Amino acid sequence: MADTEKTYQLKKQLRQLEAYHGSGTELISVYIPAGSQVHEMNGKLREEMSQASNIKSKSTKLNVLGALERIMNHLKVYKKPPANGIAVFAGNVSDNPAKVDIELFAIEPPEPLNIGAYRCDSRFFLEPLQSMIGATDSYGVVVLDGREAIIAIVKGTNITVIKKLNSTAHAKIRKGGQCLAAGTLIVKDDGELMDVEDFSAGSRIIGLDFPKSETRPFYASDFFKTPAKHSIIIRTEKPMCEIRATPYHRFFVLSEHGPKEKFAKDLDKSDRILVSRRVRCAGARVKTGFQPGMRIVLDDEERKKLKDARLGLKLSQAEAAEKAGLSQMVISHLERGTQNQTNGNLRRIYSIYGLGLDEMRLGRKTADLPEYWNEGLARLAGIICGDGTLDGNRIIIYEGHKELAEDYRALIEKTIGVKPSLRSVDKTAQNLQNFVRSGNSIEFPIQGQNGSFAKKCYFEVRIYSLEFADELMRIAPELLSRDRDIPADIPRCEDNVVAAFLSGLYDAEGYMHGDCVDIAMTSRRMMEKVQLLLLRFGILSSFSEKHVQGNRQWYVSISDRESLVHFNQNIGFTRSDKREKLAKSCARKTRQQYSDQVPIDGREVFALAKELGLKTSDFHAASCFFRDEKPLGREAFARNILSVFRKHADSGRGKEIAAYLDRLYRSDFTTAKIKEKIAVQSQEDFYDLTIPVHSNFIANGFVVHNSARRYERLIEEAIEVYYKRIGDSMDNAYLKEEKSFVKGIIVGGPGPAKEFFMKMRPFNYQLKVLGVVDTGYTDEYGIREVLSKSETILAQQEAVKEKILVDRFIKAVVNEGLAVYGEREVREAINSRQAETVLLSEGLTHTTATYRCTSCGVEEKKISRDKPEEAFACQKCNNGQMKLQGKELLLDELSELARGAEIPVEILSTNTVEGAQFLTGFGGIGAFLRYKTR
To answer: Tens digit of pLDDT for each residue in 146-163?
Structure first.
């Protein structure tokens, strides 16, 4: 039987099954893939039979039980499934509600089934078989990029991977010119936040491992700068991020076939661009580099010793002070113990008294800073960064809430060993008197100030330690500079230390805004780094300018519930009122996530669902998602989508798809919508780097493509060897006995590697390349993406086949006389065995009706385009009626007649120009002849 006729027969069977409609969910479809165990399906059917007893409708229950029994009896004849598997359908197909007609249909598919399924519905589940229609040819698919290649054979929905190859050469090749603006922040493997222009080749930088959906460090082999006049500012929303790049820098956006690359200039508001939601850094213990000074501190015994020495020399305080070159007040404070003196003054006094000074015994550290950055010092640094200022030899921290001010004072004393003072400042009143109060609360309240705009009092925590201030300016000058910034050491620290710094900063400057945690400062750089630091804890946030009067401000806002929970667990607030508000925001029940959505296009998920035989009704509230009209947050995705796939992970493919979706659900990246693009014109240098394997890195939170400078000759030679290996593997896979057995080859892959491969063409000339397409993947998903993008190419191949056939037929009719057309002529050619090949159109709708006379018994066949008559007068006896005995499609009748004569049949479609021409011009019936008619 010709392949086209097999396809037609399958179509005919499917049309018959598609016409049946059950009165309830009583039509059962069973798919048993090749290589599976029949007894396993029988076991499942027995379970379904036991559950069917719970069906409320008596008629539906009986029909389901009857259908299950028919299927189980039919499967008893099989020890194992046929070579391509088997599909069995059973159910009540009667049109009469009062009559039950349970029929069973078994189909051995033309291609191997890759799905095992049981479905009980009001219609038969036919999609897996319908996808095989027309899939009679084998095609080669080669998917490659610079690092890996997969060679496969595709026939229908069956994909057979022949070989996988890997390359040791550089991952991708394309011209340079894809660069980022100076000031773009990247993350090194130790957590350091660095401007891209300060990077050096040979270091490791954080990027996204697409196969694992996790961020991790990658080796950067190259770094360069490129001058450019044009750039584009890209701003996103949900979450809000910002980056500036040259027009030809590539970003990653979602498509129905997974992430794909797109130039910055081509991005539009319909795109969902990939951004990071978690950055995984190593972190480590980082030394402060603190070098403490020593101060001589005298106790009561030592001061008495000095006084006795002065009196023994019969010197007054004034005379002693004059000899030491000091003021009398210094000697007085020293002997009364009311003020510590400098080391130099003490050395002079001991010298003129003729005493020895034991500096080792009397020496004390000027400040007790830890050797390594710890949580206490990091939190204090965050507080000073937010609310601190340097005033001469002291650091002042301003705070409007007494609870926090008291907490700050305790933290300072515990962390650096310096007891600070706490002052209450009221600049709202005009004539308050200064007063001093001892104890552990407010020590020095300060009076009001004329002209002040203060609406309430505030507190000052004063650290009187010049040594601490000097050390802080040395190890973390960013904290007290005019343009505040995060100290360079902090991002390199362990996560708990980074969290402590953010805790101090948010205590100082953070606040609750509705259900959001916000922080705003005048330092843009500071806020950009805060956004990246939050990613260490899986906290997704938005960064943007805050429109306020006066100095420009930028803010970072945390809004989605999961990120708020992570913030509360890792950072939090110290103030009780803020803690309570944050706890309420974390506890709120919401089913919507706007800033953290699963990074997958709903159309891709729907394609995977159909592959497993699932449909929209199997999912809850998923229609808009499947049409890519509404993305889903992670919670909704897990609840409505992932849970269904997990239930159907009972086959190899089902497990693979469920694992893939679960990986994306837990992924370290998400998507953001393009809010605006702003063109910038200025001559300046732009920067980029090269990641040899994974070809991307995190910049300002975006997942951006790396550069692709041309490589040295050594790399080029390695790539040529890699391409030749692919070509040799193609020859081995697609050629048999020096002849191609695949109809054609389609080449695909991300990036330009496929174009370089096609220029080189390192494969046998007999292999016909049908097309080259772009994909986002190079694995098995890449093969499926190639097929989905090659429907037009494959359809054109079928059209070429029909064009050749019809052109040959027309030529044979007109010039050679070796073809006939028309029902009578073709029937005669079949009966006489003169026909070589019969051509029939799929659009042939004529019916052959058989009639018998009720009087004389004569039989007659009539061909009609419309519905056959039920009866007409007999022309032979003129007494009886010719009554309809049966009817059959003319197409089926002629096909059966040709098969009986062992003559091949080709069924032509009506989807091509040539197929339609054959139907309208030749009536859809024709035949090639073995010899001319005399």
So the answer is: 888 999 888 755 678 888
Q: What is the pLDDT of residue 4?
A: 63
Please give the model's pTM, rounded to 2 decimal places: 0.59
Write the single-letter amino acid at 255: S
Distance CA 270, CA 110 (A): 41
Mean pLDDT of 20-46: 87
Residues near 216 by beta carbon (within 8 Å), at least 6 away in sequence: 206, 207, 209, 280
What's the mean pLDDT in 882-890? Answer: 84
DSSP state for residue 633 in the 8-state scheme? B
pLDDT, tens only, 345-396: 888 888 888 888 887 888 776 667 788 999 999 999 999 999 999 987 789 9
With tokens 């008559």, the residue in question is: 869
Burial tier of 392 (Cβ tally within 10 Å: 0-12, 13-18, 19+): exposed
Three-class secondary structure of residue 575 per DSSP: coil
Average pLDDT, stretch 191-208? Answer: 92
Tokens of 875: 């022309």
591: nearest Cα among 541, 540, 661, 639: 639
Phi first, then psi: give them for residue 279, nearest 5 degrees: -120, 120
> Using a CB cutoff of 8 Å and minimum separation of 24, what contacts does 561-568 make?
561/585, 561/586, 561/588, 561/590, 561/593, 562/538, 562/593, 562/596, 562/634, 562/635, 563/534, 563/538, 563/539, 563/595, 563/596, 564/515, 564/517, 566/537, 566/538, 566/539, 567/517, 567/534, 567/537, 567/539
SS3 category, 749: strand
β-strands 193-195, 185-187 pairing: antiparallel
Looking up tokens 């197909």, which residue turns up? Answer: 93
pLDDT at 716: 65
